[in-house]
Amino acid sequence: MSLGFVIAAGTRCAVQAANPGRQMDLTITARISAIHREARTITTEGAFADKTFHIGPDAEIEAGGNEFGDIHDLKAGDRVDVTYRVQHGELVAIRIARVGA
Fold first, then answer.
1. Per-residue pLDDT, 27
2. What is the tens place of the pLDDT at every residue in 1-23?
3. Which of 11, 18, 57, 70 has the fewest beta carbons under 10 Å from its own?
4. Rounded Cα–Cα distance for residues 61 and 81 (Å)
């Protein structure tokens, strides 16, 4: 397994590859700047770019001590770890966890 970190202005990115040739899960820590509940997307502010994530139907959301939360438990300004995959050119969140301020 390989693991890499990039630290820039409060944003952390980790890339993990369990097996070469398989889909990689990526993780970013950032603040939510917008939530579109009906479209099931969140936008995060990063040091170099904003990113919009589609929340997958089976995505795990952890917020406020609730490990079985949903998109309604998230709000703009929350600092979150987003684990995602690139699928068909879109960023698809598979896990979102609120982290300390």
1. 94
2. 344 433 333 444 454 444 455 67
3. 57
4. 10
Q: How far is CA 24 from CA 19, 59, 68, 90, in A?
A: 8, 16, 24, 14
Query: Is residue 46 classed exposed, middle or buried when 0-12, 13-18 and 19+ CB atoms within 10 A define those classes?
Result: middle
Superfamily (CATH H level) for 2-98? Copper binding periplasmic protein CusF (2.40.50.320)
Kindly list the domain boundaries of the chain, sorted by start residue: 2-98
C-alpha to C-alpha distance for 74 and 101, rounded to whole angstroms: 14
Is pTM beyond 0.85? Reply is no
Q: Would you give the DSSP letter of residue 19? A: S
Do 12 and 26 touch, CB atoms closer than 8 A? no
Span 43-90, pLDDT tens digits = 999 878 899 999 988 999 998 777 888 899 999 999 999 999 999 999
Q: What is the DSSP letter of 21?
A: T
